[in-house]
Structures are given as C-alpha cells and as structure tokens.
Interphotoreceptor retinoid binding protein
Amino acid sequence: LEAPRQAPALKNLTLEELIAGLQNGLHHEVLEGNVGYLRVDDIPGQEVMSKLRSFLVANVWRKLMGTSALVLDLRHCTGGRISGIPYVISYLHPGNTVLHVDTIYDRPSNTTTEIWTLPEVLGENYSADKDVVVLTSSRTGGVAENIAYILKQMRRAIVVGERTAGGALDLQKLRIGQSDFFLTVPVSRSLGPLGEGSQTWEGSGVLPCVGTPAEQALEKALAILTLRRALPGVIQRLQEALKEYYTLVDRVPALLHHLANMDLSSVVSEEDLVTKLNAGLQAVSEDPRLLVQVVKSKGTSYGPEDEAEEPPEVEPEVPEDEAARLALVDSVFQVSVLPGNVGYLRFDRFADASVIGPL
C-alpha cells in the first residue's frame, strides 16, 4: 500500500487558498419557493471555520437567511473535522442558551471532550420558525452522520434520504512497524448526542425520518416543505369550519385551543397530518364522528381506481301508476319485523321532498 499523502499544513496556506479549498466542497443557492439549498461535501475544522467565518457569513449565510426553509445536503459528505460540529449546529440551534450536543471519546489520549453550541455566532441563527431538512445517503459518514443525528434528536431537522454509512467518527492511518503498510483504525467515537448514553449512530447509521433513494431525496424534501408551508392555512380553515358547522358548539372552544397549540413538527405527509388531527380532535371532543379527510384535487390522478368519477345521483321521478310507486318504495326502503317484535327499517339515502311527499 502507498503511504498516505500529506495535506499541506493549514498554517502555511494563505486566506485565498483556504477559501478556494472550502468552495470546492460547498455549494449554495435559493430554489423555487424561496427554499435555501446548502450542499456541504466536507466539514471544515475549527481552525478553518474561525479564519473563514466572516467570509462564510457574508458570501453564503446571509444569502440563505432570508429563505423560508433550508435544505442541508450531506449526501456526498463522507467525513470532516470533529471541531467543526459546533459551528454547523450553532447556526441552526434556535435557542438563546448553549446546548450540550455530544461527548467525544478519543482513544489515543484516553480523554473525553464535551461539544457545546457556541455562546454566540457571527451574524444570525436560522429562525426556529423555519423548517430545516437534512439530505443523507448511504455514503454520508463520520462527522456528517453525527451532525444529521444531532439535528434529528434536537427535533430541529427532518432527515430525508437513505440510512447513513454507520462509519467511524474519526479515522487515523497508522504505519505498521517500519514497513510501507498502513492500517486505518477508528480513534474517536460519539458517546451519545444530547446525553443519550450509549445510543449512537455508529455501526447502525442514522435512520432517516423519511426514507427515499438518495437521488430522489431533494425532490422529496421539496414536496415535504410544500406541505409544511400549507399547514397554517389548513389549520385556519379547519378552525373556521368548526366554528361555522360543528353542532356540539360547547366543545368548539376546546377544539380551537387544541388546534392552535398542536405540535406539527413531525408532520411530513398528508397521512401524518390526518392521523394526528383525527386523534387529537376526537380525544378533545369525545366525538368519534368528527373526522378530517384528504380531498383530492379535481383533475389529479392518484391511480387507476380514481380515474373514473362516480356519476352524480339523480332523484327518481315519482310515477303515476300505483304499482310502479310501490316498486319504487320497495327499491328505496327495506321493512321487516324481526324476532321479538322488533321493527327494522333500512334506507340507504335521503330522497328529496319532491319524492317523499307524493310517496
């Protein structure tokens, strides 16, 4: 095996060289719908971050701050520097206090290091009211996995894509004796983001909130953000419908309060929303008849079973002939007397008054 190539020492690089190296693994733009997109292929360490923080804020972060949601693309990020973790997390951490996000064990020094968010950031934090989606692939590894997992456990981001590699947080190449052979071994590990003890992503990978092939992850993320952008309007229209139509008027205030305080952070599909709404509304109202359903837009195809629309019901004309009238009644109503002298009357729809009257 060849000896590993030595990267030039950072202290020997000029600012322009540092910027050029950073830009090779960084891409940002504002997508349709005012969605910010930031692709990071390598997580720089503290030394680079501290030197280039002003450049990053002025040329990247400020252009993304005005967006309504952010997509952080880590699908091609196979590693990075542990010391860069606080910088990424801090700009997405909405709180005003520092947060302990991980503890790292280093084998060579037999020491542990706590990782906290920064007390303050240059520029602004990304608003807590704005959604963040992290894209992952089976190649996402090391420090990038740790960042995805921390943001997921903080409930700050929706992870979309594939289960990550489940690799090591930090690797080191060691020479075997005086030979030209080298052994790559893990030398650092996460002891559990956010104080979760032994529960880490190493070995198993980070499981996405929404699983999808990596090449489709961005499209899926944008669809999720479109849905989430519509949530406030959906809740408002539901509140208006309850006030206008719900017959158990004494329960309406409690229902409105429930809707106004619902946690919708985990909603990533129409099915999620319907399930959450029905469970909450029925519990508050104690009324199993109160149901929310998804109404498919006219002209939208959802599959072969939905291609043909049912014809509208037409009220039958009341015939003049008495026998024909009796036949009509028999076709609409089923009447019998059950054992125990129990009357049974079945009809499957309400007829118009113009039909019921003459009959």
Notes: Confidence is low (pLDDT under 50) at residues 1-7, 299-308. The first strand starts at residue 26 and ends at 31. The chain has nine helices and twelve strands.
